Amino acid sequence: MHRTVQPRVLYFGTPVVVISTANDDGSANLAPMSSVWWVGRSCMLGLDETSRTTANLARTGECVLNLPSSGLVGAVDRLALLTGTPVVPEHKKRKGYRYEPDKFGAAGLTPLPSETVAPPRIAECPVHLEAVVERIHPFAEEDSGVVAVDARIVRVHVEEELLVPGRPHHLDADRWDPLIMKFCEFYGGGRNLHPSALARGWDMPPRRTAPEASWNAGTPQPNSP
Ligand SMILES: Cc1cc2nc3c(=O)[nH]c(=O)nc-3n(C[C@H](O)[C@H](O)[C@H](O)COP(=O)(O)O)c2cc1C
Q: Is pTM, for the whole model, over 0.90?
């Protein structure tokens, strides 16, 4: 039987993208996101308008969309509650975010120069999509605080091991194991991979099968108000 419910988030499972953008002093910012869909050579990115990433995209019109494999879940989780915005917005403060100017250092990731845009790629990610912004649209209801960024991919770099042997422009779906965000939890190959700082920030219930899960026992949850 189906029930009518009001889930807090509708993230039914999308690949994680780590966006690199250039700050106004030329340094790099990184931000994980997963509200993205792809058509042809373009994509639409759903972004919080208070994020440093959004400001950088609006100012410079350039980014790299780095696609992490599931093995990079630890680095992505280290970025989860960080912002490159020096004055942390209230809605992020409440979730436990802090300002971090050195996201590469905080995540333990390595910058790699891009070929057509200023922001660097992330060496550890198997896929890098250099992109330019076409348009930035308002999104959802008025004052949603979210924008939709229409970005066009201008160069694609792929780790050689992901290519079909003898087919230099084809990716092997069986070899690509994307990091997936489902609701606020990290998955790869259909399995949960790592505790999620984002889920803590959003005060999501512990997973029923997680060793630390307490909701079956009826004990208070760690972040409950
Ligand atoms: C796995 C994951 C997925 C996320 N997806 C999104 C998203 O789709 N859109 C968004 O605006 N923020 C998303 N976030 C939150 C951003 O990472 C967060 O707003 C961050 O502070 C942005 O960094 P910045 O302010 O330095 O740009 C996600 C975070 C994680 C860990």
A: yes
